[in-house]
Amino acid sequence: MGTFDGLPISPEKSYLREDLSRIDESWAAARFDSLPHVVHILTSKDREGEAQFLKEQSDIIEEVVDEVVHAYHSGFNKAIQNYSQILRLFSESAASISVLKVDLADAKKLLGARNKQLHQLWYRSVTLRHIIALLDQVEGIAKVPARIEKLIAEKQFYAAVQLHAQSTLMLEREGLQTVGALQDVRSELTKLRGIIFYKILEDLHAHLYNKGEYSSAASSIHERDDEVPTTTAVAFSMNSSQPLSRRTRLLKGDNQFGVLGLGDGYRPGSIDGGSSFDGHDEEGALELHDEATLDGYNAITKVNGGDGSQKDIKIVSHQIPPWLSYATPDEFLESMKKSDAPLHVKYLQTMVECLCMLGKVAAAGAMICQRLRPTIHEIITSKIKAHAELVNSTRSGICRAAHTATTGLHYLKGQLESYQSPKQKRQNGISLAGTLLAVSPVSPVMAPAGTAQTAAKELLDSILDIVVRIFENHVVVGELLESKGTQVDMNTPKSVTVEVNWNHDSEASQVTGGYSIGFSLTVLQSECQQLICEILRATPEAASADATVQTARLASKAPSKEKRDRSEDGLTFAFRFTDATISVPNQGVDLIRQGWTRRGPNVLQEGYGSAAILPEQGIYLAASIYRPVIQFTDKIASMLPKKYSQLGNDGLLAFVENFVKDHFLPTMFVDYRKGVQQAISSPAAFRPRSHAASTYSPLVEKGRPVLQGLLAIDFLAKEVLGWAQAMPKFAGDLVKYVQTFLERTYERCRTSYMEAVLEKQSYMLIGRHDIEKLMRCDPASACLPNPFGQPNMESNASDVDVEVEMELCDLLLSLRPIKQENLIRDDNKLILLASLSDSLEYVADSIERLGKASIRASNPVEENGKQKMHHHTQTSSAPPRNLASFADEYRKLAIDCLKVLRVEMQLETIFHMQEMTSREYLDDQDAEEPDDFIISLTAQITRRDEEMAPFVAGVKRNYIFGGICSIAANASMKALADMKSINLFGVQQICRNSIALEQALAAIPSIDSETVQQRLDHIRTYYELLNMPFEALLAFITEHENLFTATEYTNLLKVQVPGREIPADARERVSEILSR
């Protein structure tokens, strides 16, 4: 800032600031030196101008000074006036004080003469004031019963309890104990204490089960009851994906009981709503209450109205709840205003606080225990009945779709029937799809993805979701009651005893009347267990027997007192529960067993009516029950306080897992083993099935003719693995079942295979090491599936391929003569081998896919298992590897079938072609037809190709029939060496034979006709060389040295051809040409 900044210059003369800014600040220096300025003017060329400039600056400064003086002058005047007024007031005050001192001295003299009389008057006024206060209190207490009844009618229970407690304390005062007119009020207050208790208990009971006015789940449950299921008529429409409420985490994690000060008692106030007993105006108090009530109802409207979002709840969380609008402010009320807990949790806290103020904690706990089981049973039953009525009302429009829809693995029925001919649709009077479904021990409805499984899962999800939300309320109330247990009123009966052998905290159990979180969890899980038993049709006798064994086992594990004293080892969940017994004075019945309505013993026998919703019931519904129970257990474990953390590891999940292990899995194994046995032992199990005119399709649903037995086994294996997917913990056992079934099926397939190839030459040949090695190196084997994960050995060098093929042909041709009894003459056996090969490959691919799916499914399960409890994790990766090994075994047998077929066709070719060596080709005239053995061979090739076409893919048909051409070519070439003579007509006949064979092989769509033509043209070219003169033959050999081998050229010279002269040195000349 500059030196002249901040001067009080008026806005009209703002230009002065600019003028001041142009003045050098050196003029305002504290020690001003004028010499430099004088020297500057004297030495300046324009002295008059410089002097005039200084004069202008001086005028500016004088004008600024004038402005400053005018600005401060009025302020100085006002300050002087104020100081003069202050001086005058001080003078007047001093005079008044001196006068007051004189008056006080006179008053002291006058009062000192009448001191005793004034004291008496003061004492009398105090006595009269006390009498008036007592009369006001008596009058107010007389109105208390009516006011309490009014508060009860308006459900202002906390205000009613406050008023009752304050009135009771006032009646105990020394001045009011002897007032006879208040005896009736005392008796009425005693009666009202019981009335308030039962009203509070009823309201608490309603909110415990989400039926109260402030329950969080009440509105959502009623809305869901009106929803129409959109899947099928038997599907349960309850949404089971409700997020877990945060109320338990708030109460348990932040220890809200201590923070809110709920255990600090209450602070008494006035009867009429004031903060003291001075008798304030009631109308004013009512105005305050009405205003608070309006605010409170606005708050509840915001919570329940609209979409009921959490945001609205947070907005009103710090307002006074509507049920506390008439309450006298105290510590509890302040804690409610400051609490961030949801509205329904605040209401439960208020009800428990009321019970504590009444001294009825133990009695309330006993009554809650008494009504817990009947209420839960009624809630579950009513929920099921309501949904059953809804299903019945909508069944007319949905039922047809439910019955006609195909679900899960049972899609095969319609797909298989779609491509079967009318003649083949029925085998032994039963359709193929019907046969497949008949081998399954469960109906399509009860399949892993059937409607019964879906309905059971949705039903249990909805019921367990309701139970979880109810248990959340019980956790809140249970912890509150335990924390309030030490504040029980002395008038509460002390003879309340509880026999709960699973709870080691006997003192806490007594002060809460037997009620605890552990007890409520046990009863809730007991009812859920009974519902599950009804769904599974499990007999109580079997469950009780299992419970006895489990109890004995658990008892033998904890003999020491130290273990018995630890709360986390105390609760064990049996298959069947026994209720806690509570003894209350003057009651000769067991509250838990009988209940208020005396319906306790009949509750478990009435059932739940789940059959009205589920299309079927039975033990196979255990798969759909497993996951909901796991989710239920996880939610329960997350809600339990640390003291009861061990309870989450036992209970309903233990029951379900033991039931699955001891009952479901053995039953399933027996049923499916019977189905497998029926599938593979049926006469039609390994009977090829396909229409004669049908073509091969790679998809089953489009007509791939997989053998009925293998198709049924694949069906059963997928179904069993479907059960494994529903129960990951038992996936290892179920996969072992599948392995057992696949092993038995493999043995049956091996038996069928051996029946077709036993003692046949083709089967023995593929078992020879040298031939097996050559067949593996044969380039034609590239189309075969890879057994044991090894790639087929395919060489890229054509010379090596030719050598392997020639060596294999030489080995087979060396087996001549081939006997007919060593060949498979029954075409049905060949068709069986073809169908068996394709079916085995289909099953192998299916098993391999299932194994990979198991690996993918096991990874997320194992990852989740690291974060969750160990009770539903899959710990072994062996099953997928074993399934892959079974797939390799099936694929290897399928390859053996194809190898047998290929070698069989090659041996058939050799069997027919070996007649060339015994026939003389010296015909007198040209024959119009090929030889009979060629006609027989080509007919057989065509017939077998047509019969096998529906059962194997084109590439496999190429493999089966692709070896014929090379064998026929080599046999024809070698046949010339055994011939003694041949004429022109004989050469033409051999060429005609090759043409016929070429036409038969080219007719097979999967065979490369160009390769066949090239090889058989090679044969015709070779035999046509016999018609050339010797010199022309030498010229041909000279030009085509590598077209045939030296032996083949030599064989051309050995055979006698009429009209052809061969010189004596013919062999030497040919050898000379070939040796160049």
Task: Write up this protein.
There is one protein chain. The protein has 1076 residues and is mainly alpha-helical. The chain is 65% helix and 1% strand. It has 40 helices and four strands. The strands form two sheets. Strands 1-2 form a two-stranded antiparallel ribbon. Strands 3-4 form a two-stranded antiparallel ribbon. The longest helix is centred in the first third of the chain and has 66 residues, at 47-112. Pfam families: Sec8_N.
User: What is the 3D shape?
Assistant: elongated
The strands making up the biggest β-sheet line up spatially as 1-2
Average predicted local confidence, pLDDT:
74
Rounded Rg: 53 Å
Strand-residue proportion: under 5%
| E-strand count | 4
Taking the alpha carbons of the first and last residues, their distance comes to 117 Å
Total helix count? 40
Q: Report the biggest beta sheet as strand number plus sense, adding barrel if it closes.
A: 2 strands, antiparallel
Low-confidence stretches: 218-317, 398-430, 488-505, 541-605, 793-797, 865-880
Helix content class: 55-70%
Structural class: mainly alpha
Protein name: Exocyst complex component Sec8
Pfam families: Sec8_N (PF04048)
Keywords: Exocytosis, Protein transport, Transport
InterPro entries: Sec8/EXOC4, Sec8_exocyst_N
Question: What is shown here, in short?
Answer:
It is built from 40 helices and four strands. With 1076 residues, the chain is mainly α.
Topology:
Blueprint: H1 15-21, H2 35-43, H3 47-112, H4 115-153, H5 157-171, H6 183-208, H7 218-225, H8 247-253, H9 256-259, H10 282-304, H11 310-316, H12 331-338, H13 343-358, H14 361-404, H15 412-419, E1 426-427, E2 430-431, H16 432-439, H17 451-484, E3 497-499, H18 506-511, H19 517-536, H20 540-557, H21 561-565, E4 581-583, H22 591-594, H23 600-606, H24 622-639, H25 652-681, H26 708-726, H27 731-757, H28 761-766, H29 769-777, H30 798-813, H31 827-867, H32 878-913, H33 932-948, H34 954-961, H35 963-978, H36 984-1002, H37 1009-1024, H38 1030-1039, H39 1046-1054, H40 1066-1074
Antiparallel strand pairs: 1-2, 3-4
